[in-house]
Design a protein that fits this description.
The protein has 15 helices and 15 strands. The strands form 4 sheets. The chain has a 6-stranded parallel sheet with strand order 12-11-10-13-14-15, with helices on both faces. A 4-stranded parallel sheet has the order 6-7-8-9, with helices on both faces. It is elongated and about 70 Å long. It starts with 12 loop residues before the first helix and ends with a helix.
């Protein structure tokens, strides 16, 4: 299995999903070797063995490896393709880039690559180097199936498939249409996504919403595209409900990017505050639209009702949900969306956009169009002011989430694996 991130070092839902899926597969008697660009040695290896790509030496004396890449040339693109980072981390990454973070070591025909494992300006180079390492791993290890998560690892998956001849599954957690919108597509990323999907023997999409995009926008054969909804890790102990202010708290948690629709959260907040000024709003996360979000809150004159926490992880997320009265996910195009499940796990009522994969599996959530800020505001206001509604959604939502288990998702995935192996 090829991935780009794994807890505790994550930038969003991708790493969380990879962990849940490997744990679920282990409980279905599937052994997983999980390859990542740069391991930190603090990853939980209870259910999977982590392979650090930075520690793998690529043997360029092996003709079957070099022949895969002998026609590859690199074209430098003057573009800072650095998704999923906030303002401070962006400048840190630029400084690292200028000082030279991509290093290699060569010895007797063998070469190791030093990956950052981040989303830096050297991202495309790292993607290509990761494919080289994947080819080497495929020539050394014994395995039955190759599974590659999201576009960053698709070339690695294809390289491993060409070396080993084993079936390839690519897992679509998001597409370029989700991240950038219909009219701002990055052609390089789109091309890599389509290449991976076309070369794969099976494509797993995290929702029917995403499956439709894969079929209609990437022109992939429908019979090889399988919906595979995400799940959520069960909590070992109940989230503590503890508030430090008397006002009700409405929370947005996610990357502050175009895809996640933070501007719609802010506009609906203004409409609610016009009716009830005794509400606080929390925008938890970071991203390229953070500066715009802060400016818009100031323009609307609601700064004293807004809190910006920055990126949260682990126990911080549980603590935030423990303070929240409503969780809102106003995503413009959300392949799935794990954060509503995390909120519902803590008995928090949720309002989510209809343009999300998670809306397909939730019964007890209020669903609105992302652009309809009036409906969004009405839904949030209703939950805040009708305790019986809030209690009903909180308790029934928890039941919804308890039925979404990674072990069940992995069982469906194992059936896809067996179908490929027996075909």
């Amino acid at each position: 299995m090829f991935g780009w991130e794994f807890p505790p070092h994550i930038s969003g839902g991708l790493g969380t999903a990879c962990y849940g899926l490997t744990k679920g597969l282990a409980k279905n008697d599937v052994e997983v070797l999980f390859v990542m660009p740069k391991a930190s040695q603090d990853e939980d290896q209870t259910y999977t063995r982590i392979i650090d790509a930075s520690a793998v030496a690529v043997d360029f004396t092996q003709s079957h490896i070099t022949s895969l890449f002998q026609n590859v040339s690199f074209i430098e693109v003057n573009s800072k393709l650095i998704p999923y980072v906030g303002i401070n981390q962006y400048y840190q990454l630029v400084d690292q880039m200028r000082s030279g973070t991509i290093e290699t070591q060569t010895s007797e025909g063998k070469r190791t690559f030093s990956f950052t494992g981040k989303y830096t300006q050297n991202l495309m180079q790292e993607v290509e180097n990761y494919a080289l390492v994947a080819a080497q791993i495929a020539s050394e290890y014994d395995f039955d199936i190759i599974h590659a998560h999201d576009w960053l690892t698709y070339k690695a998956g294809v390289a491993a498939r060409k070396i080993s001849g084993k079936p390839l599954v690519v897992h679509v957690h998001a597409t370029e249409f989700d991240r950038s919108g219909e009219h701002n597509i990055n052609d390089i990323v789109y091309g890599m996504e389509r290449y991976g999907m076309s070369e794969a023997d099976a494509v797993c999409a995290v929702s029917n919403w995403t499956r439709d995009i894969v079929i209609n926008k990437y022109h992939i054969e429908p019979k090889k595209v399988f919906p595979l909804h995400n799940a959520v890790e069960p909590v070992l102990k109940e989230v503590v409900r503890k508030k430090y202010v008397k006002e009700k708290i409405v929370t947005f948690l996610g990357r502050v990017t175009f895809q996640k629709g933070p501007e719609y959260f802010i506009e609906s907040a203004k409409k609610i505050l016009d009716r009830d000024p005794n509400v606080r709003f929390v925008l938890a996360g970071d991203g390229d639209l953070m500066h715009n979000a802060i400016e818009r809150v100031a323009e609307l004159g609601i700064s004293d009702r807004f809190h910006f926490t920055g990126f949260l992880r682990g126990a911080e997320i549980d603590e935030m949900f423990g303070m929240s009265d409503v969780y809102v996910m106003p995503s413009i195009s959300e392949p799935f969306g794990i954060s509503p499940l995390e909120a519902m796990r803590a008995y928090v009522p949720v309002v989510i956009s209809k343009q999300s994969g998670v809306s397909e599996v939730l019964t007890h959530a209020i669903k609105v169009d992302f652009w309809d800020v009036d409906a969004m505001a009405d839904a949030i206001y209703g939950i805040l002011h009708y305790p019986a509604l809030a209690t009903f959604l909180g308790e029934k939502g928890k039941e919804d989430v308890d039925n979404l288990q990674w072990e069940k998702v992995a069982a469906r995935l194992k059936k896809i694996y067996n179908q490929l192996l027996n075909s």
